[in-house]
Structures are given as C-alpha cells and as structure tokens.
Amino acid sequence: MARPLRIEYPGAFYHVTSRGNEKKNIFKSLQDRRKFLSYLESSVVRYGAIIHVWCLMSNHYHLLMETPAGNLSQIMRHINGAYTTYFNVKRKRAGHLFQGRYKAILIDADSYATELSRYIHLNPVRAGMVERPEEYPWSSYRSYIGKNRVPEWQKTEFILGYFSSGPSFSSGSSFGLNTSGDAKVNYMNFVEALLGKKYPSPLKAATASTILGNEKFVQKISRQYLDERRVERDVPAVRKLTPGISVDEIIDIVKNELGDNEDLTRKVSIFFCRKHSGARLREIGERFGISEAAVSQASRRLELQARRDQRLEKLLNGLKNTLRHVKC
C-alpha cells in the first residue's frame, strides 16, 4: 500500500480518522474510551494539539484537529502509539491495533470546519447507535450544546463562533472567551437539521483524498507545500495534486534553451521530467529508452554535478523558473 501524503504546516486543520485492524473494535470497555481521551488530553499538553471535535465509535474514531506547531505526525504517533501500547498490555496481546496508517485530510477550516463537525457528531446516528446525537456519550456534541462541561483540553469556541450573533472567531483566535447560549442553540439546530435525512459526506469532495477546500485553497497548498515533493512518485496524491507539465513539453523547452548540445539536453530533460512532469518513472524511462532505476540515477548524478558546477546550477535554476511560468 502506497504511503499517504502528509502535508504539515503551523496552523493546519485536519479531519483525522483511524480504524481498527480488520475492522475489529478498538474500544471494548469504558476504561478504554477514557484512556483514549486521556491521550487526546496529553497530545494537547505535550504537543500543542487543539482538539475541536471528537467522536469515539466502536472500531474507529474521528477528530477535527488543529496543529499550531505543524506537527501532526508527532501528535498521531503519540495518540495511536500510546493507546496501542495500553490496549496490548491490558489484554496481553501483541501486534497492530489500527488498520494501516491513520487517515488525515487537510481542510480549509473557514469553508468546511462546521460541516465536518456536524458530520462527525452525527456519526453515531448514521450508524444506528442512537436516534439523536446528544444521546451518544462518547462524542463532543453534548459539550457543544451545553449538556456537558467542556473538557479543559477541548476547544469549542472556534466552531461555535460561526453560530454566535456576536463577532465570529477565526482560526488562530485566542480561546477562553465565553460563547453565547444563542450560539449553542444555533449549532444544535444546524446539526439536527439533517436528522432523518440522507446527505453525502463532505469528505467526498476532498481532492486526491488529501485536501478539502475550494480550488484556490488546493492550488495554494499545492504551490506552497508540494512543489519540492514531486519526486515522491510512490505517493499517488502527489501526482494528482501536482500534475505538472507533459514530458514532451519539458523536452521541447529544454531543447530551445540548450540548442544542439544533445547529451546535456537529454540529461537535463530526464532531470526535469522526473521533478516536474506528472509522469511515472516508467513512463519517463520508456520515453528515453532507459529503465526506471536509470531515470532516478541520471537525475541524482546531474543534481550532484550541479552542486559542484555553478554554471550548471545557474542553468538548472533558470530552466526551473521557465517551467514554473509555463505551468502557471
């Protein structure tokens, strides 16, 4: 299974879910659920996570999380790792508890946070476990509508800010402010408006199963955080999010810049096709009559050569800028 794409930066919002191995239950007792919540709390204390919304089902969980320090991987290693250790020690078992890697979708919070919070809070209703979301004790919903005290490690202000009659909150706002009772009632009405109705998951709108946001948001994230990751050919999401320029277009551009120097043109073309095209290594290799491994080797050799040769490095940087402008 190809590893998932992780885009991490300070202030990012994610919908995170993780499922039990072979779809088996990961929570078998009240103590299990309480213990898992304690690891959410310690992720806040130790790693600065902000937990906005949570729901513990039987064989999986959902989180709506913010990472001010841009350290999602560190946070999730703590949560899933610590809970797996606890679960295995308690039941004298060994091995994986969760099915593969956790799934994290980066979201445009201003556009999708409220919708995702509703989706998460209605999960027990969709599963037929309860008729109304406030009947389910293992989610953050009751704290959102004022029926439970909000845990110190959970933040409701950001979501409820969208339902307040006063000034709304935005991501990065300071917490600890009082949220009006009107906001809680408005949020409850928002969530319960979908009771008894069929509705699509907002997560289905995610681009490459990685980013949930409008086209402008997806392009911004791709440009800022994926440009240098196009070499990761084994990550399908990278190819989808950064389709790049075609192999033929790159070859033509390099030929126009380098003229009759066929050997250098070939090497540079292979280098930029690997870095900036949407093609797989096999496709690039077939175009140049070489193997996938030879594509990688040729690219690395040229990169090393450029580090020692300032003229070559300047040439590659100039071509890189040209290709970027063509793509834009």
How would you describe this structure to a colleague?
By secondary structure, the protein is of the alpha+beta class. 50% of the residues lie in helices and 9% in strands. Strands 2-3-1-4-5 form a five-stranded mixed sheet, with helices on both faces. A hairpin with a 3-residue loop joins strand 2 and strand 3. Helix 11 crosses helix 13, helix 12 crosses helix 13 and helix 13 crosses helix 14. The radius of gyration is 24 Å and the shape is elongated.
Provide a short characterization of the protein structure.
Helix content is about 50%, strand content about 10%. With about 325 residues, it is α+β, with helices and mostly antiparallel strands. The protein folds into two domains: about 10-210, Transposase IS200-like (Alpha-Beta Plaits, 2-Layer Sandwich); about 245-325, DnaA protein, C-terminal DNA-binding domain (Chromosomal Replication Initiator Protein Dnaa, Chain: A, Orthogonal Bundle), CATH 1.10.1750.
Map the helices and strands.
Elements (H helix, E strand, L loop, with lengths): L11 E8 L10 H18 L2 E7 L3 E8 L4 H20 L11 E5 L1 H13 L1 H4 L14 H4 L12 H5 L19 H12 L18 E2 L2 H11 L10 H6 L5 H12 L3 H15 L4 H8 L3 H17 L1 H18 L1
Parallel strand pairs: 4-5
Antiparallel strand pairs: 1-3, 1-4, 2-3
**What's the structural domain tally?**
2
CATH class of the largest domain: Alpha Beta
What would the average pLDDT be, to the nearest integer? Answer: 86
Largest sheet: 5 strands, mixed
| Strand proportion | 5-15%
Strand arrangement in the largest pleated sheet: 2-3-1-4-5
Radius of gyration: 24 Å
The N- and C-terminal alpha carbons lie at a distance of 32 Å
- The level of helicity is 40-55%
Quickly count the helices.
14
Give the beta-strand count: 5
In the CATH hierarchy, the third-tier topology of the largest domain is known as: Alpha-Beta Plaits
Task: Specify the structural class.
Answer: alpha+beta
